[in-house]
Amino acid sequence: MGLEIVIRRAEESDSEFAYQTVERTMKGHALAIWGKWLEAEARTNTASDAKSGRSQIIQLGSERIGVLCVDRLATHHQLDQLYIVPEHQRQGIGAHVLQLVLSEAQAAGLPVRLRVLRSNPARSFYERHGFCVFSESPERFFMERVPV
């Protein structure tokens, strides 16, 4: 990759970008599962995560291209969001960011867990990176990668 990938703490001013990224990457999957998109809820959640610094912004050089949110718990790291805007998908950026998440959890000796909507083809992306389904619901697959 020619430009440097930077991951920085989100700021309140990133709220609209974060919302737009979530909408662009997840709205279609939500519609496929539930038949609706809860815009107000999504806006509230992304604004809260940005304001609190819970979420991070993925940049390629100085361009914002994605959102990352990882909760570091005592038992595991929960990958809540790894969203790359469509025009930058399938370029190895998500894999690079995921590897950083996995390396941090590996160093702590903890598994990484996530959930993926059944309608989202990202399941195969995570399986290629060593994740396995450990539980499922009618809407989601719950996946985990244990430290190696």
Number of domains: 1
- Ends: how far apart? 27 Å
Q: Helix count, per DSSP?
A: 4
Which value, in Å, is the CA radius of gyration? 15 Å
Give a description of the structure:
- There is one protein chain.
- This protein has 148 residues and is an alpha+beta fold.
- The protein has one domain: Gcn5-related N-acetyltransferase (GNAT) (Aminopeptidase).
- 39% of the residues lie in helices and 30% in strands.
- The chain contains 4 helices and 7 strands.
SSE order and pairing:
Blueprint: E1 5-9, H1 15-34, H2 39-52, E2 56-60, E3 63-72, E4 77-84, H3 93-108, E5 112-117, H4 122-128, E6 132-136, E7 140-145
Helix pairs in contact: 1-2
Short note summarizing the structure:
This protein has 148 residues and is α+β, with helices and mostly antiparallel strands.
Give short descriptive properties of this protein.
7-stranded mixed beta sheet; 30% strand; 148 residues; alpha+beta; 4 helices; Aminopeptidase
